[in-house]
Specification:
Blueprint: E1 2-5, H1 15-22, H2 28-36, E2 40-42, E3 45-47, E4 58-61, H3 65-68, E5 77-81, E6 85-90, H4 96-103, E7 111-112, E8 121-127, H5 130-141, E9 145-154, E10 160-170, E11 175-179, E12 187-199, E13 204-211, H6 218-225, H7 239-245, E14 252-259, E15 274-276, H8 283-290
């Protein structure tokens, strides 16, 4: 079962339009059958037709995870695990909280130490006890966990660059805005990157992104702001580009985490340790366009 809360941008939309947008791999016939069986609730009430939904509505969808989320959710890889932490390789179309729910019967304690967007894939760090959670959260707050992402962008990136700007979060619209100058309510952001691969002819850049500040949608919005929208990003990217590459979700992957300045004796073994995925994401986008 999936539980959702309707965002501002979907206010006044039809239920089927909303669900197929949130779950691109959900078959329309499966969705219509679910409606006929009244296996969808809105604000606790069962519905059987394609009703209009509104901002703040709470929706419960009673469909098996593998049908609503697609085959990628059937097996979620564990990249690293010990007595204190566990790192999952999160697939697309699943929230971090849903990942916790999926494994709640396996672990006595399991809490996420950070978040990545529903359609961003890759590493998510969880704590397996409360003491570890508190310490890991302090490390994130103090910038002692170095986070790298891999992004596939439309545009010709430099060999490397450090970007500085200011970000404002509009909570009602679930959007952020970027400014080159500081304004009231805007927070400073710093994002650096290095080029991994480039197809200059087709304007495809695969870059390694180092997130120095951890603001909502920072990478997606910041890269779009400088003319490097992430392919597949329906919120900050280009519809024409996404359609051309047939990508419905942003090509952004949480790729590696490195722990720095670990002083707590219980977690000293993590000092300067890097944990990363053993796969290279998004190379297929360049491969497919070159075929």
């Amino acid at each position: 079962m999936q539980r959702l809360k309707v965002e501002q941008r979907y206010d006044g939309k039809k239920l089927i339009t909303y669900l197929t947008s949130v779950y691109p791999e959900l078959n329309i016939n499966t969705l219509r059958k679910t409606l006929r069986l009244k296996d969808i609730k809105i604000n606790g009430n069962r519905v059987k037709s394609d009703v209009t939904i509104y901002y703040g509505d709470e929706i419960e969808v009673y469909i098996k995870d593998e049908l609503i989320l697609g085959k990628t959710v059937r097996e979620i890889s564990i990249v690293f695990e010990d007595e204190s932490i566990i790192l999952f390789d999160k697939p697309t179309n699943i929230e971090v909280t849903e990942l916790k729910d999926k494994f709640k019967n396996k672990y006595e304690y399991l809490e996420p130490c950070h978040r990545i967007d529903r359609n961003t894939v890759g590493l998510v760090l969880f704590a397996k006890n409360e003491e570890c959670l508190k310490y890991i959260l302090s490390l994130f707050k103090d910038g002692k966990i170095e986070k790298h992402y891999i992004a596939c962008c439309y545009g010709v990136a430099k060999n490397e660059d450090t970007l500085e700007a200011y970000l404002f979060k509009d909570r009602k619209k679930s959007l952020v805005y970027i400014s080159n100058i500081q304004k009231k309510g805007y927070s400073k952001i710093v994002t650096s990157y290095k080029l991994i691969d480039l197809d200059k002819k087709n304007k495809i850049s695969i870059i390694d992104v180092n997130l120095h500040t951890g603001r909502t949608h920072q990478i997606r919005a910041h890269l779009a702001h400088v003319g490097l929208p992430i392919i597949g990003d329906g919120k900050y990217g280009s519809y024409e580009v996404n359609h051309r590459f047939k990508k419905k979700t942003q090509a952004l992957c949480s790729y590696s985490l490195t722990f720095h300045e670990i002083e707590d004796e219980r977690f000293k073994y993590l000092n300067n340790k890097t944990i990363k995925l053993n796969r290279k994401p998004f190379n297929e986008i360049i491969y497919d366009i070159r075929k």
